[in-house]
Design brief:
two-stranded parallel sheet, mainly alpha, 57% helix, three-stranded antiparallel β-sheet, 5 strands
Length: 234
């Protein structure tokens, strides 16, 4: 039986991804449900397969099956990546050292201030607010090929995440109040205020939303012909 993802467990998972610690990552995925974190740790798992970490290929096969069964945005892209690491068809997507969390922030930020660009040399996600017209002008046209424009797609997907999360709740009273909270302006703030009354469900929501955001970022990047560069240089 798998354990729930606690703050402590998630910190260990993120540490494993940051340090490319394949054995620690696999240990965490064995004792916790991997489905809730596949998009967040998939690149490090791919790297572990390339590195030949014992058990990595078997774990990747299980995760690939789970991704294809789930079928959310970005899941098929990651499944193909894991397949390729295990000896399947090589991905034609170009590696780019981009942080999917930061990319999601550009894609799904405030429509008035969101969007930005990615430095194709470094993978840096640069919010539109960080630029001035003068800087853009200086880099055009000589620097135009260095940047990948990221449009702001607004909060529609994030709103749908709240709606879908409500359907997963066993507590029907909480589900009812959350359903009321997301109606009208200020929905995001009210949703989080109501959900804060149940810390365990709030934790589960943050994980639920992060997994979806990473997947949408991965899908968008693949549409542009790129994938996140794997830890370790693959």
């Amino acid at each position: 039986m798998t354990e729930a993802w606690t703050d402590h467990a998630l910190k260990a998972l993120r540490a494993a991804c940051h340090t490319v610690d394949g054995p620690l990552l696999l240990a965490m995925l064995r004792t916790h449900d991997p489905v809730g974190v596949l998009q967040q740790c998939g690149d490090t798992l791919t790297a572990a397969v390339f590195q030949g970490v014992p058990g990595a290929r078997e774990t990747a096969i299980v995760c690939t099956s789970a991704l294809r069964e789930r079928g959310r945005p970005g899941d098929a892209v990651l499944a193909e990546q894991l397949d390729a690491a295990g000896g399947g068809a090589v991905s034609m997507l170009r590696p780019l050292p981009v942080d999917l969390e930061k990319l999601s922030g550009l894609l799904e930020g405030d429509p008035a201030w969101g969007g930005g660009r990615i430095d194709l040399d470094t993978g840096e996600c640069r919010p539109a607010l960080a630029d001035t017209e003068e800087l853009w002008d200086q880099e055009e046209p000589e620097g135009a090929e260095r940047w990948l424009h990221v449009p702001c797609q607004g909060s529609r997907d994030a709103y749908r995440d709240m709606e879908d999360f409500i359907t997963t709740l066993d507590d029907q009273d909480l589900a009812h109040f959350l359903g009321i909270a997301i109606q009208g302006p200020g929905a995001f703030r009210r949703f989080k205020d109501v959900l804060a009354t149940s810390p365990a469900e709030l934790q589960r929501y943050w994980l639920f939303a992060a997994e979806r955001e990473h997947g949408r970022g991965r899908a968008w990047l693949a549409d542009q012909g790129y994938r996140p560069a794997l830890p370790g240089g693959h």
